[in-house]
Automatic annotation (TrEMBL):
Source species, domain of life: Eukaryota
Stored Pfam families: Sulfotransfer_1
Organism, as annotated: Kalanchoe fedtschenkoi (Lavender scallops)
Keyword terms: Transferase
Protein's UniProt name: Sulfotransferase
Family: Belongs to the sulfotransferase 1 family.
Length: 357
């Protein structure tokens, strides 16, 4: 990646271009995670950024106004520099632990429903989602395609191409915003997002990083110090775009999907420009997709019990409960009140709300 540094610098805001060129890589002790990066200049730049103690790595760094881990920042710089969106592209965007695995499955099945025969009585024959994790079918841009300094050949993807990202809207590659590509965003009640994140981190955090109490994690989450956070800025970035450009950005809520996913699937299909025909409606195709992609179906598939579709994460760890309101079983009423206060304050005047929150 060393020979890509001039391109990377060009892809950064002016305020960070000079930092990357001038920073002294020996100016401070080396974070072991930055030492693993494939590009020394990028590692040095990352060490120059504001930082806080991390959740599953020693530190999180503040890059372009959001918090992120070193490997992901390197990948995002690579992504911002090299990714060229097509008008026909579809980008799934989420903040971690808000239903990404489910949305990937739903969008993939909806988009490809004409390619796979529906058998009589319900269900799909030989559907890829029965044999592949949804993260393999809809790859992450920063976790997979542009990770570790690689520049992928995206010509191998059929059109329309489907990708996923956790990157906040302002930090998306410019071509995503100017090409006419469609973005589908999913968010979740922050209290449930926190609990899901907390349980997930407990499974992947290395013992060498020391104890990481729920109280400490909750405080960091409420301050916005969490991967790709602050969560409220992440939500608001896509929320505002969905209002300004409703034909290009679709904003979904996890709770609506849990309440009744079939209308959400129908809304998704309309947004993609491929609404269900009267014949499909009569055959209950949207309900078949809902069943195929349900938490219960996907969790019990062998492919989702073994392997790692995302580097460093066991597939089984992507399926915990998927419930709405589970936070009440883990957080005190005082913690719930504190989170509500943060959300009300940060989302004030935006029109974005959460039912039952």
């Amino acid at each position: 990646m060393q020979n890509l540094i001039p391109l990377i610098i060009m892809g950064l805001p002016e305020t960070q271009q000079h930092q990357l060129g001038d920073v002294d890589s020996q100016a401070e002790s080396v974070d072991p995670e930055t030492a693993k990066l494939s590009c020394p200049a990028t590692a040095a730049f990352i060490r120059s950024l504001p930082k806080e103690r991390g959740w599953r790595t020693p530190f999180l760094y503040k890059y372009q106004n959001f918090w992120c881990q070193p490997r992901e920042i390197q990948a995002i710089i690579n992504l911002q520099t090299h990714f060229k969106a097509h008008r026909s592209d579809i980008i799934i965007a989420t903040i971690p632990k808000s239903g990404t695995t489910w949305l990937k499955a739903l969008l993939y099945a909806t988009l490809n429903r004409g390619r796979y025969e529906i058998r009589g009585g319900g269900g799909f024959q030989s559907h890829p989602l029965l044999f592949s994790n949804s993260h393999d079918l809809v790859p992450f841009l920063e976790y997979k395609l542009y990770a570790n300094g690689q520049i992928p050949d995206l010509g191998v993807f059929d059109s329309p191409r489907i990708f996923a990202t956790h990157v906040p809207y302002p930090a998306l590659p410019g071509s995503v915003k100017t090409s006419g590509a469609k973005v589908v965003y999913l968010c979740r009640n922050p209290l449930d997002t926190f609990i899901s994140s907390w349980h997930f981190i407990k499974n992947v955090r290395h013992d060498s990083l020391g104890d990481f109490t729920m109280d400490r994690a909750f405080d960091m989450f409420c301050r916005g110090v969490v991967g790709f956070g602050p969560f409220w800025e992440h939500m608001l970035g896509y929320w505002k775009q969905s209002i300004a450009n409703p034909n290009r950005v679709l904003f979904l809520k996890y709770e609506d999907m849990k309440d009744d996913v079939v209308p959400v699937i129908e809304k998704l299909a309309e947004f993609l420009g491929m609404g269900f025909s009267p014949e499909e409606e009569a055959a209950g195709v949207a309900a078949e997709i809902a069943n195929l992609c349900s938490f219960e179906t996907q969790k019990e598939l062998e492919v989702n019990k073994t392997g790692k579709s995302i580097s460093g994460f066991e597939n089984w760890s992507l399926f915990r409960k998927g419930e709405v309101g589970d936070w009440v079983n883990h957080l005190s009423p005082e913690m719930g009140d504190k989170m509500r206060q943060v959300v009300v304050e940060k989302l004030a005047g935006s029109g974005l709300t959460f039912s039952g929150f």
